[in-house]
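name: query_chain
kind: protein
chains: 1
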Amino acid sequence: MTNQSIIEKLGFDASDKVVIFHIDDMGFSHTSNIASFECLDFGIASCGSILVPAPWFLEVASICRKNPKYDVGIHLTFTCEYDLYRWRALSSVDPTSGLLDSEKSLWRTSEEAISNVTITAAELEMRAQIQMALDNGIDVTHIDTHMGTVINPKFLPIYLKMAREFKVPAFLPRVNREILINEGLGDSADAILKMFSKIEESGAPLLDYMVIDTTGDYPDKVEYYCKRMAEIKPGLTHFLFHPAKMSSELEGITPDSASWRDQDYKAFTDPRIKECVEKYDLHIIGYRKIREYIRNQ
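structure:
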């Protein structure tokens, strides 16, 4: 089954440009939470995903319990990239799990996590993060990946197992040999492409396109995003961004990204962004719509 047929099953034409405007890193700070829910309420952002081990997860859970309309999933993570602002694994403090670095926190880089986290520990930690969200009253609509780590070939089978077990769609970008080579996975390309072919044959929805180059400062980020929207093609596109309101908290956590996160927040609460969506005839959906399709099969 192809993505196009899934789009049509959802009620769209094969020629439609269907976009998931997705907020990453919910729960990572108070100011990111405020910004994220304002963006969702504004109406262009359609969904987001939560860093369950992060310090402000419970605030997200409280808001979602009171407002079950929000379309939120789990930003599965084996990493915590900040210098002085760290979080730990939920499932284990056992050093043999490979989940924790010398500071007893999740790894700062994907490369370290991929090298050190064991397969057994990966499954326990993914399940713990999803279950923690469910136990706190969140209607989990999907799973995706923080810093790309859990969709590495080492962890991909477990990631797909979690999607099946909890009956939710998983963020799965369509890949080709060129992409894999550029990501340094050329030696494993044949095996990975075979795996993704089987995934698609199983009926799991694959994303046709991604817009992920959304970090960085721009003189006018609305203008930048409108240019990216103009390039969107027919099919299913995952368009991610990272909103947070400028604050001393944000600057203290991540001085390098505080400015562009604030720009993301302002861009996705700017009336001009709605004009761009209308201009380029983009059809917005969230992952809940895909989840309900999967569960009704």
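note: Residues 3-295 form a domain with the TIM Barrel fold (CATH 3.20.20.370).
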